[in-house]
TrEMBL record:
Name by which UniProt lists this protein: Intraflagellar transport protein 57 homolog
Signal peptide from the UniProt entry: none
GO BP of this protein: intraciliary transport; non-motile cilium assembly
Lineage start: Eukaryota, Metazoa, Chordata, Craniata, Vertebrata
PANTHER family referenced in this protein's UniProt entry, alphabetically: IFT57/HIPPI (PTHR16011), INTRAFLAGELLAR TRANSPORT PROTEIN 57 HOMOLOG (PTHR16011:SF0)
GO cellular component: cilium; Golgi apparatus; intraciliary transport particle B; microtubule organizing center
UniProt keyword DNA-binding present: no
Gene source species: Pelusios castaneus (West African mud turtle)
Length: 417
């Protein structure tokens, strides 16, 4: 199901990019490559990735969907690091944090930098796409500004101008040039000199040998076809080529005149076609302009309706953005209320279990029984004490009466005497 949703989302984004323009579908890849270069300038591999044990990014990491959960965590990690790098302290998000709250905090920081956000926050939940690349690219630019980095003009390396390679071509053989070539060959190849005296002696000797022979009628025994084949085989070797001096300015002037004549002849032929093409294009442009005016007049009310609908759409987007911010705050409040409700439910369950439990009642009964037993024992002790007290009082009273009788008897005897 998640794969189908991601596929549908991706198809919708491609359709929307195709509607905006033919090259808009590749804008995300170019933006991702620029983002990667800016992250390398900020040394993100050492400061961000190694600290969280993450792998380096590929050229199209946030442009194509691979693993939405991993991509969203990488997006939040890099966004928090870039915000901190730009001078705004930002707490590093964890894996189990609320994604809506994290995205809302990141977008609020992005707005604080003066960047516009004209897309819903739900676009960032996937962890990839043009919106994710846009947010990270803006944060990377703010981080580069905060660190004092500035783009400079490129410095191109100086290349040495190579001499133009001019091919050797066959030139007409003139007497002066041939003599110069012969002189150069003689100066360059001194080892190949032929002694004229020796040559004359050999020629004289061969003539003498031939004169000694009988004069015979000269008749060729060579076939004409073989002779022609031999001539064709040896003819390229007999061809004289002269290397032209490419540094001579006269040759360059002649070449310039030849090119000029060629350009003028070609211009005469093409000028008529160009004039004809110019007239056709002018007539076509006039037709297009008139047709455009006619279409604008016919579709004026539709254009007005479109502008009105566009204004209503922008207002609805603004209301949606405001509502999405309020939803985030209410979601956080709802989570807090849910936690309090869970605590209250837990306390109610504990009290309910304690009320239905019969153990306290049994303890109360046992305590009452024990109190009754102790009361009986106390009553017995009180009765014993009262009995003892009564006996002591009776004994004391009897002692007092006995003492009184003892004192009264002697007085009676004294009165008798």
């Amino acid at each position: 199901m998640a794969a189908e949703e991601s596929g549908g989302r991706r198809g919708g984004e491609e359709l929307e990019a195709a509607e905006r323009g033919p090259g808009e579908a590749y804008h995300m890849f170019a933006l991702m490559e620029d983002l990667l270069e800016k992250l390398k300038l900020l040394n993100y591999e050492e400061e961000a990735l190694r600290r969280h044990h993450l792998r380096p990014l590929s050229r199209h990491y946030f442009a194509l969907p691979t693993n939405p959960g991993e991509q969203f965590y990488m997006f939040c990690t890099l966004a928090a690091w870039l915000i901190t790098k730009a001078g705004h302290p930002f707490e590093q998000p964890q894996e189990y944090d609320d994604p809506n709250a994290t995205i809302s905090n990141i977008l609020s920081e992005l707005r604080s930098f003066g960047r516009s956000v004209d897309f819903p926050p739900s676009k960032l939940k996937a962890g990839y796409g043009e919106q994710a690349c846009y947010v990270l690219d803006c944060l990377a630019e703010e981080a580069l500004k905060h660190t004092g980095f500035s783009w400079k003009r490129p410095v191109y390396p100086t290349e040495e101008l190579e001499e133009e390679a001019i091919t050797e071509d066959d030139a007409e053989l003139t007497l002066n040039k041939l003599e110069e070539e012969i002189v150069e060959d003689e100066t360059d190849n001194e080892e190949d000199f032929i002694d004229l005296n020796v040559l004359k002696a050999q020629t004289y000797r061969s003539d003498m040998n031939e004169s000694t022979k009988q004069e015979e009628i000269l008749e060729s025994t060579t076939d004409a076809a073989e002779w022609n084949l031999e001539v064709e085989r040896v003819l390229p070797q007999l061809k004289v080529t002269i290397r032209t001096d490419n540094k001579d300015w006269r040759i360059h002037v002649d070449q310039m005149h030849q090119h000029k004549d060629g350009i003028e002849s070609a211009l005469k032929e093409t000028k008529g076609y160009l004039d004809k093409l110019h007239n056709e294009i002018s007539r076509t442009l006039e037709k297009v302009n008139s047709r455009e005016k006619y279409i604008n007049n016919q579709l004026e009310h539709l254009i007005q309706e479109y502008r009105t609908a566009q204004a209503q759409l922008s207002e609805a987007k603004e209301k949606y953005q405001q509502g999405s911010g309020g939803v985030t705050e209410r979601t956080r409040t709802l989570s807090e209320i849910t936690e309090v409700l869970e605590k209250v439910k837990q306390e109610m369950e504990e009290k309910g279990s304690s009320m239905t439990d019969g153990a306290p009642l049994v303890k109360i009964k046992q305590a009452l029984t024990k109190l009754k037993q102790e009361t009986v024992q106390m009553d017995i002790r009180i009765g014993v004490v009262e009995h003892t007290l009564l006996q002591s009082k009776l004994k004391e009273k009897s002692n007092m009466t006995r003492d009184m009788h003892a004192t009264m008897i002697p007085e009676a005897t004294i009165g008798a005497y």
